[in-house]
Amino acid sequence: MDQILIFKTNVDSPMHVLKVEGLFRSIHSIIRWNFDLEDCDRILRVVVSDIHMRPEMIEQLLRSEGICCEYLEF
């Protein structure tokens, strides 16, 4: 069963988006992802196929590249 993870980020440019794309390319359990850069929280939605994929894993990955990322429970 797929799950959707939602994050507040500081991504505000196409360059940031490309950086995230490069990071996510190697994670096979990520089915799709997108940003809502028009939202004040610059929302990142990630659909994962692995129910064991924890939000902290994505937060750490993005933070390692200097991108602020905070999981939002919904």
What does this entry look like structurally?
The chain is α+β, with helices and mostly antiparallel strands and 74 residues long. The chain has a single domain, classed as 2-Layer Sandwich (Alpha-Beta Plaits). The chain contains 2 helices and 4 strands. A hairpin with a 6-residue loop joins strand 2 and strand 3 (43-48). The mean pLDDT is 93.
CATH architecture title:
2-Layer Sandwich
- Structural class call reads alpha+beta
CATH class: Alpha Beta
Radius of gyration: 11 Å
- Reading the helices and strands in chain order gives EHEEHE
Question: CATH topology, which one?
Answer: Alpha-Beta Plaits
Parts with pLDDT < 50 across at least 5 consecutive residues: none
State the distance separating the first and last CA atoms: 17 Å
Sheet of most strands: 4 strands, antiparallel
Strand content: 25-35%
Helical content (DSSP H or I, runs of 4+)? 25-40%
Give the domain tally. Answer: 1
Apparent shape: globular
Number of helices: 2
Number of strands: 4
Strand arrangement, largest sheet? 2-3-1-4
Summarize the entry for a quick read.
Helix content is 27%, strand content 32%.
Features:
alpha+beta; four-stranded antiparallel sheet; 74 residues
Summarize the topology.
Blueprint: E1 3-9, H1 14-24, E2 30-36, E3 43-48, H2 55-63, E4 69-72
Antiparallel strand pairs: 1-3, 1-4, 2-3
